[in-house]
Amino acid sequence: MTTYTTNEETGEEESIQKYYDDFEDAVSAALGTKSTITLQSDVQIESKNGNAICLDDENSLITIDFGKYNFTVDYTELSFEEGQYVLKGTSGTVDAAMEIYEADVTIDSGNYQCNWAYQAITVGEDGSLTVNGGKITGNHLAIYSMGRTIITGGEFHGESCALEISPFNHSEIYISGGMFKTDKKDGAVSIDAGGRTIFETGYVAYLLDDNGNKTDKIMSGEYGTDITENGDIIVDRHEKHTYGIWGACENCGQYIEGVTEDTVAIVTIGDEITAWDSLNEAFNKAEGKKATIAIMEDVNLESPINIDNSNTDITVLLNECTIDGEAEDGTINYINVNAGKMAISDVGMFNNVAYNNGQTLAEQLEIGYVY
After folding, report:
1. Is the pLDDT confidence value at 116 over 60?
2. How many whole angstroms separate alpha carbon 236 and alpha carbon 48?
3. What is the pLDDT of residues 301-355, one digit of tens each?
4. What whole-number distance in Å separates Cα of residue 269 and Cα of residue 316?
5. pTM here?
6. Residue 248 per-residue DSSP state
7. 292: which residues sit within 8 A by CB, 6+ positions away?
8. Per-residue pLDDT, 362
């Protein structure tokens, strides 16, 4: 075991190494300090009438490096009561039921399982678990969370569910990576979200085929969603937000601020996304820039739209909506692309809309103004 202390005179961190024949003795010595416990051989801890091995000092900053060795705890808990802990390993296996009560535990690497409990890891209401890597396997669940759980990577396996989030607690769940698998394909649930928002902004879940390749995308709406489809999933970042009908990103389901029942268009310019109740104002916002205008509902032009800036590069996503050039007084309005470019994308309709002094859309497709 390596213990780290600060020299009061120099302010520099110093380390002291000690060796222990018993894992529990090493834990007792490390509690309340900044230490690293590094296994030097396989460890097997027999059941002690159900008494847990407790790591219960709030001042603890302990890293446990299992390395290539196996660590087995039979029929008793490895209990993280208080403090901060980092777990890592390589080719060895940690076989233990882990309970996280008021502690902060981070798993960076290693293989974790439990051959006797219902789930491998339980996160209590006041506990926090961060998983950046490694593999966690449970008999029925890999992780059951009632508290704060952050997943940026790793693999999670369970017979009936890889990750279950309690619907009865104020769980905080943030997922921005990881692969979630169930052994039972009939009726299995890869992630039971418990109604919580689970994916970080910009991340989505994809079903995997038998070869491990991404197939269908699974939406994660504003209020979270259970991944109930049979099959394994992977969570990954999508390239960019693409806002479709009702202002929801077609990739991750995120909604943008400012979208109301009166919103007729959403303008995306780089990372800036704005909602507009007027199509004319939306075009004014986009002019002179490379922009996407997503049409949110059928809309009539009340006045002409003039595009005069040569730097304009606008793509209009119709989203199965109609842009009608006829105003309430019967006037037919123009979309005048006098400079720059405008592209029309997606399924939708233009009614009574004239382009560039009366040219039709077909004519402009031929001469390149609109394409």
Report:
1. yes
2. 42
3. 888 888 889 899 988 888 778 888 888 888 888 788 888 888 877 666 766 665 5
4. 13
5. 0.68
6. B
7. 267, 268, 314, 315, 316, 317
8. 46
Do 354 and 325 touch, CB atoms closer than 8 A?
Answer: yes
As a whole number of angstroms, the distance between CA 149 and CA 119 comes to: 15
Mean pLDDT of 40-65: 86
42 forms beta bridges with none
Residue 209 in tokens: 């085929």
Q: pLDDT tens digits for 346-361? A: 666 766 665 554 444 5
Burial of 92: CB neighbours in 10 Å, binned 0-12, 13-18, 19+: middle
Whether the CB-CB separation of 60 and 32 falls below 8 Å is answered with: yes
Q: Which is nearest to 69 in space by CA: 127, 110, 114, 117?
A: 110
Check residue 163 and give its pLDDT: 86
CA distance 38 to 102: 24
Phi, psi angles (nearest 5°) of residue 83: 100, -175
Phi, psi of 187 (to 5 degrees): 80, 10
Query: Which tokens sit at 275?
Result: 């909602």
